[in-house]
Design a protein that fits this description.
By secondary structure, the protein is α+β, with helices and mostly antiparallel strands. The chain has 3 helices and 5 strands; from the N terminus they run αααβββββ. The protein has a 5-stranded mixed beta barrel with strand order 1-2-3-5-4. Strand 4 and strand 5 form a beta hairpin. Helix 2 packs antiparallel against helix 3. The longest helix is centred in the middle third of the chain and has 23 residues. The radius of gyration is 24 Å and the shape is rod-shaped. It starts with a helix and ends with a strand.
Length: 134
């Protein structure tokens, strides 16, 4: 069997497996294998096929991690909490407990003028502490 056929079979299997996981990583590796198959079909040697697959897989992994990682400037899961309303359970001098998404969270006031008697909203998240403000 020609090497490019092996790459295309591998690409098909990886893409098919991706349909069961939904992570996009296997899809990316499937694309890398498909590109290596194309390089093999064009007549380039095994080293070029491997280099193509590796380069696409590594570059794609870094790009996908950057896209999915909230710490790199993209929209993270915590960003979805910003602006959401919380209910005050207890409050004392700018710190307290609030109820959000069915559980109690530690909270800190964003500034000293926060009035816990008024509705509080999440402004930021620092670890497991919600930073809140009116």
């Amino acid at each position: 069997m020609p090497p490019h056929v092996f790459w295309w079979i591998l690409a098909f299997v990886l893409v098919a497996l991706e349909l069961t996981t939904g992570t996009f990583y296997l899809l990316l590796y499937g694309v890398a294998a498909g590109a290596a198959g194309l390089v093999g079909w064009l007549g380039l040697g095994a080293e070029w096929q491997l280099l193509t697959a590796a380069a696409i897989a590594v570059a794609g992994t870094f790009a996908l991690r950057r896209w999915r990682n909230p710490g790199t400037g993209g929209l993270g899961l915590q960003d979805l909490d910003i602006g959401q309303h919380v209910q005050v359970e207890s409050w004392n001098e700018g710190r307290g407990q609030v109820r959000y998404r069915g559980t109690e969270w530690d909270a800190e006031a964003e500034n000293p003028a926060v009035d816990p008697a008024k509705p509080l909203y999440i402004r930021a998240i620092r670890g497991t502490v919600l930073i809140v403000d009116n």
